[in-house]
Amino acid sequence: MREVLESILSAGLAAADPALAVERHLGVREGEVASGDGTFPARRVFVLSAGKAAGAMAEAAERVLRPVRAEVEGLVVTKYDHRPGPEVYRTLFAAHPEPDEAGVEAARRVTEAVGELEEGDLLLALISGGASALLADPEPPVELAEIKELTGALLRSGAAIDEINCVRKHVSTLKGGGLVRLAAPARTLALLLSDVVGDNLSSIASGLTAPDPTTLEDARDVLRRYRIEPPGSVRELLDGARETPKPGDPVFENVTNVLCGSGRASVEAAAGKARELGYAPLVLSTSMTGDCRGIASAYGAVVREVLESGNPLEAPCALVSGGEATVTVRGDGEGGPNQEFSLALALELDGVPGWAAFSVDTDGNDGPTDAAGGLVDGETVQKIREAGHDPEDLLAENASKAALEAAGALVVTGPTGTNVNDLRVALVET
Question: Terminus of the chain with fewer CB atoms < 10 Å: N or C?
């Protein structure tokens, strides 16, 4: 089953290819930039590609735009060790998920370049997951150290990504529609590769090019809900009167947002590959969220039901889902939601034969680790114990990486060049 799962994973990643996503939605007609049925005449085009898939998206855009009549320049902002953009564009690298000084410098350069755009120019924004952290743009008086403290607390709290982004938008200059506010009166065409559940445009990369329906009060509520005491400068800003641009704001009259790819395509491709390899697929959800341990418990229950009764479908079958799991950090161990899901599922089905599963973050980095996730079966827990570890203790300490590594169950892909969130597949055989 391991080989089958590896083939399914490859199919899921291929379906999220960011270059193909750009090529499907960007073109040139009669010398002008085009997308769908619309054309975007411009004397100058500034290409901003930001996120974990920024390099591949920028390369595709550069190829497509070669016949365009306008003057074209570009800036690419992506994560360390990820694919750079084409040589004709400048590439800047920064940290993710917690921002660093390089991200501050990247945001400064973006702010400067976009602020120089004029009427008759076009901002072509190619946005993928990770852009929110990579463009570290604290609104004064907030400083980087305080943004890092706030981001770390939110990530450890188990808050959902839309809740984290709600807070980010209100302590930033570019997020929550700030990017297009800076670009005005130039037009903006944004191609968005979604890594958020539901593909809400205002949540992708904290809504750089979209109206922000959330408010300062919403941001304060998130911090109260997760009992996060923000740094003083953040509290000062959230207690202030500055708001992000809302739906209906005239600044968005010259903005076109196009969803060019999402996790749904990866889930559907994984399901199709499973069918091709002889496993009847069942897509549980393309928008599964919540704590990874709860998701693992639900998966374990369905696997047992299939083995015991043939419901909701008979084996051989594949249980497929996408979305974004979270981790509530209780210990000091290293891991991420996909690794913790894998360890929790292995414990749920310890010693049960006839199943195997993987859970990966499609960008190749699960949480703050260099592993994409885990691939486990009914023997994984025993292998952990044979290596001298207590799997229950490691789970309690959020040390899922150490546990899976001991069992040879880590999935390490390296940076994949795309980012459409989590992909989970469990195979069941009789």
Answer: C
pTM of the model: 0.84
Dig out the tokens for 321 from the structure. 């889902």
Q: What is the CA radius of gyration of the chain?
A: 22
**Residue from 5, 97, 4, 96 nearest 411 by CA:** 5
DSSP SS3 for 375: strand
Give whole-number Cα distances, 236 to 130, 151, 171, 176, 424, in Å: 26, 17, 10, 19, 41
Spell out the per-residue pLDDT of the chain, length 430, in tens: 999 999 999 999 999 999 999 999 999 999 999 999 999 999 999 999 999 999 999 999 999 999 999 999 999 999 999 999 999 999 999 999 889 999 999 999 999 999 999 999 999 999 998 999 999 999 999 999 999 999 889 988 988 878 988 998 999 999 999 999 999 999 999 999 998 888 889 989 999 999 999 999 999 999 999 999 999 999 999 998 679 999 999 999 999 999 999 999 999 999 999 999 999 999 999 999 999 999 999 999 999 999 999 999 999 999 999 999 999 899 999 999 999 999 999 999 999 999 999 999 999 999 989 999 999 999 999 999 999 999 999 999 999 999 999 999 999 999 998 889 999 999 999 8
Buried (b) or exposed (e) across 244-263, using 16+ Cβ within 10 A?
Answer: bbeeeeebbebbebbbbbbb
110: phi then psi, degrees, rounded to nearest 5 = -65, -45
Nearest to 415 by CA among 81, 86, 91: 81
Backbone angles phi, psi at 246, to 5 degrees: -100, 170
Tokens of residue 52, six digits = 């974990």
User: CB within 8 A of 294, min separation 6: which ones?
Assistant: none
Write out the two tokens for 210.
């979209």
Whole-angstrom distance, CA of residue 273 vs CA of residue 255: 37
CA 151 remoteness from chain centre: 15
Backbone dihedral region for residue 335 (phi beyond 0: left; psi -120 to 50: alpha; all else: beta): left
Kindly write down the DSSP assignment for every residue of 165-230, as one continuous string: HHHHHTTBSSTTTHHHHHHTTSEEEEEEE--SGGG-TTTGGGTTTS-----HHHHHHHHHHTT---
Neighbour order of strands in the sheet with 38-40? 27-29, 32-35, 38-40
Cβ proximity of 317 and 354 under 8 Å: no
Cis, bond preceding 312 (omega within 30 deg of 0)? yes
